Structures
1.
Amino acid sequence: MATISKDAAFWSKISRKYAASPIGNMDGYRNTLERTKSHLKPSDNALEMGCGTGSTALLLAPHVANITATDIAPGMIEIAQEKLDQGGPENVKFKVAEVQDHARDNGCYDVVMAHNLLHLLPDLDEALTVISKITKTEGLFISKTVCAPNKTGLKYGLIRHLAIPVMQAIGKAPFVKFVSAKELERKIEDAGFKILETGDQAGTMLSRYIIARKT
Ligand SMILES: C[S@@+](CC[C@H](N)C(=O)[O-])C[C@H]1O[C@@H](n2cnc3c(N)ncnc32)[C@H](O)[C@@H]1O
């Protein structure tokens, strides 16, 4: 619980800076957005967890019936709501919530999305259990997540075991826990999904884009 509230404070504190910084890999972002759109249906009731400042939810809204987009950080949701209030689509609802808060939304969603979120969660297995519980049978889970490389060399070791802990100690980095793409896929399957698409995005560390169907 302490990690969760610390992270909410961290992300809220940096929310305005996060909103102002350009997307690092615009081609990759556009590509995953298009791939995601191709799986959405006009009748879908969608949820995006860890939505940040809401840009993705606002872009995907015209392709679904409804989208609820949530984030642990009030600062992020405040910015998302400001964007919505400036004439955003009417089928979007933003609210402050962390992954576990959705545990009661039993079988509610046709599509659940988590972009750049899973590697930030202290308990990935627990989160995937919630995601499975709230996704309708035959519904989709769509995720983009930073993963550990298959071969972890010196550069990764220095980032993971030196730079990140130092940054965390001075409040400049949130909690992170990286698993390999293979392990992530196995965990998603163990949570009751069949992987439909999986692929890497270029970057310093692996960013894995996965689309999975609830069985
Ligand atoms: C790296 S940002 C990604 C934001 C957005 N999805 C994107 O791709 O730009 C991670 C987001 O996850 C949120 N977050 C972190 N831990 C969370 C949790 N336990 N539950 C819900 N959101 C969380 C943070 O507040 C932050 O907005």
Note: Residues 4, 7, 11, 49-52, 71-73, 76, 98-99, 115-117, 120-121 surround S-adenosylmethionine (CB under 6 Å).
2.
Amino acid sequence: MASSIVSMISIFLLFAMSGHALASLSPTFYSSTCPNLTGIVRAAVQQVVASEPRMCASLVRLFFHDCHVNGCDASIMLNGSNNEQFAFPNINSLRGYNVIENIKALVEAKCPNTVSCADIIVIVARECVMALNGPTWTVTFGRRDSLTANQTAANVELPPFFLNVSRLIANFQSHGLSVQDLVALSGSHTIGQGQCGNFKSRLYGPSLSSSPDYMNPYYNQSLRSQCPSSGGDSNLSPLDLQTPVVFDNKYYKNLINFSGLFHSDQTLWSGGDWTVAQLVHTYAMNQARFFQDFATGMINMGNLKPLLAPNGQIRKYCGKVN
Ligand code: HEM
């Protein structure tokens, strides 16, 4: 008994001396090792937004696509054609890898070998939402970077644009995320752009008002000019037509107006799930409530299955393992 207590204490001391926290995530994780982390990231994000506001939308999506595949472990950042960047939902679509790499270099210059790429992705997403007038929340730190990426998991886990509401709920629940998280986090589609190939099938078929995929005819008309029936698959349209670089609750007002861009958006209002539709209505009426639940959802998504010391590593460059 005494000897096993002694060995547990020595394992603890070993970790402590090797600089590993026997840790869970914490908002103060870098307080002594990189006290100005938030300041460095905030200044960099402000420059990014000034030169290309859409990039912040892309970075929020990058957070989702990292965290929804085995937790937030920066696996999305690993280069190489077998990796997640080449998975179907990401290829020719996900962007912002260079921005994360550049911010990591700024952080490395001040706090070498200290801050994980996974944590940088998480704080950049928060700073981006704030920079576009959205809510703020407390970010926790201490995630480690993975040693591998998993393209197969990315193909299976990331929800495609054609899912209906019950499959979206199942997808989020399989990641430990609630119906409220699904509806609130989908509100990210109040910023950014989508490619014609992902919504074209909704534009040119018959659109019956009784159909769960019914689209407002005026909205349909305006999308057709950007998205012809043949070709133009990579043409971009805003996910929220009126305020694509402002983080507001317009997305939900659009859904109620049958003006959601993707099937996976409109199904939240029209898909026949009353709990989900009620949440859409609440967020459309009450932006403060949306902001509160969005912040909760981002915290929940950021904290799932964290890779903690002594597993993983602090990558020097986000694009490759050390
Ligand atoms: C609920 C299931 C979801 C589906 C099916 C979905 C699907 C998509 C698709 C198809 C695009 C456009 C990609 C392209 O055309 O290249 C997109 C864009 C985007 N998504 Fe989602 N998404 C979902 C949830 C989320 C969540 C949870 C977040 C963030 C927390 C998010 C953030 C974004 C953002 C910000 C964009 C715009 C990116 C840009 O402009 O580069 N999405 N999403």
Note: Strands lie at 193-195, 236-238.
3.
Amino acid sequence: MSAKKTEISKRATEVLRLLKSEYPVAICELTHESAFQLLAATILSAQCTDVRVNMVTPALFDAYPTPAKLAVADVAHVEQLVRSTGFYQTKAKNLIGMASQVMTRFGGEVPREIEDLVTLPGVGRKTANVLRSVVFGLPGLPVDTHVGRLSRRLGLTKLEDAVKVEYELNAMLPPEEWGEFSLRLILHGRRVCDARKPRCEECLLESLCPSSTLPTKKSTGKTATKKLAHKAATGKAATKKSTKKPVKKTKARKK
Ligand code: SF4
């Protein structure tokens, strides 16, 4: 391993240690009581907040408590139940398709292997890793927008592709830590390392973060900050507002 890779790997281990101390309990914020419910909730969470999904799933699971019931559901009724999560037509179709395939191909049980999970409608690698790590206790590191952003800001990767980021992080961390590392990065991204305005002054990772916006300790009193490092890591200036036009929402994709 090169000296640079060793340094990044050590940083990943330190990030893991600090996040564990800051967030001793790492839980998935999607309400669920079974693998089937978490799978359905994660499909609904595409382009939607966990809070909103948790408002919708009680009625959905009351009406369709099992894959067998959801597999034969009336699509218009499911659409009506999940409407407020956005992209409701695609999501309703994926939910019914997922349940149908769980019944016909997996005997009514949600599969555990990633190769099987990703063949289900609406299920991508991120959702498959959520299932594996949260309900099955198996290694799986879901890379969502928070995990990708924080990994780049912390200098753990330079890559944008979520699957490549997942593999890079996997190589630096013990498999039994993958799932909770992802959950803790998500918590930190939501609470401190905001996409637009990271609160570096209250961040416990600041001392090892190459993208911190705070003045460096060796500051000469001029403008010696880590902003350039931030720019290098994210492609954006740390404090400037983005001049990009808002991106139009696209169809819900596999997560
Ligand atoms: S120091 Fe700033 S940029 Fe780095 S992880 Fe913390 S909040 Fe994010």
Note: The domain at 35-134 is CATH 1.10.340.30 (Endonuclease III; domain 1).
4.
Amino acid sequence: MTQHVALVTGGSRGIGAAIVEELVTVGAAVIVAARGLQDCERLCAQIEEAGGSARPLALDVADRSSLRAARVRIEQLAGELGPVDWLVNNAGIAISAPLLRGTTDSGEDLYERHLAVNFHGPRLLVEALLPGMLERGAGRILAIASSAGLVGYPYVSAYCASKHALLGFTRAAALEVGPKGVAFGAICPHYVDSPMLAASIANVVAKTGKSEAEARAFFASQNPGGALVQPSEVAGVARQWLESGPNGAVIELDGARQHLRQ
Ligand SMILES: NC(=O)c1ccc[n+]([C@@H]2O[C@H](COP(=O)([O-])OP(=O)(O)OC[C@H]3O[C@@H](n4cnc5c(N)ncnc54)[C@H](OP(=O)(O)O)[C@@H]3O)[C@@H](O)[C@H]2O)c1
């Protein structure tokens, strides 16, 4: 079996951790990246104890100096594991706010923040890893986007804008680079049962007085399939696409079904 080397950003919890665990089952060595190094180390230790191969990486995708340091570390790890041939741009944030409140209480611009994490981070990692993939004539780059990259939702305009940017970039890259041997694809889940959603549920509970079960049921009812998407489902689809999915695939997960768009 050819051993793939995957880099999964935001791999320490939620959807990213499920993808890490799924890729280990097909023999990939996985670099688990997030800002919280200890969380990455904990997951990697579990994987190594179970006989898999995983390495932690401290990385803030919104910070250029962190990206530079990570690039050096990825090159060191290539000597040990081989070069990264599967990049999963999964790290992301979602902060809700009314359209005209574009800054947080601390004065941070919400649009700049979302674009930095959800778009420029993935784009800069592509710029770092794509030249090597093109030289080798092989590589796969998967974006964990969102249904918010396909349609708009109220109160998350910055999130929607950043995910539309990520999806547009992915579609253009697939057309330009796919014929040269590096495939691009995206997964667009509706609401997923992850720590990110748990934070949204806690927010609804605090603001509306609804119970946690009611808030969870509300989010599930918003998915066209009527149920929350599970991280393991996203992970299974990610693994399938990385192994053999078509270039330019945009896969929507609605809580019940998968829809393949281009
Ligand atoms: N949950 C949903 O309903 C849903 C639906 C559709 C799409 N998505 C997308 O799926 C992806 C994963 O979401 P999730 O629900 O698993 O989120 P999550 O539970 O909040 O986990 C986010 C992961 O990203 C990391 N991260 C956050 N900011 C980062 C940064 N600046 N640099 C590097 N890593 C960072 C976090 O670790 P640290 O905090 O330690 O950095 C963590 O590992 C996101 O792109 C999200 O937009 C989620």
Note: The chain has two domains: 5-189+231-250, 193-228.
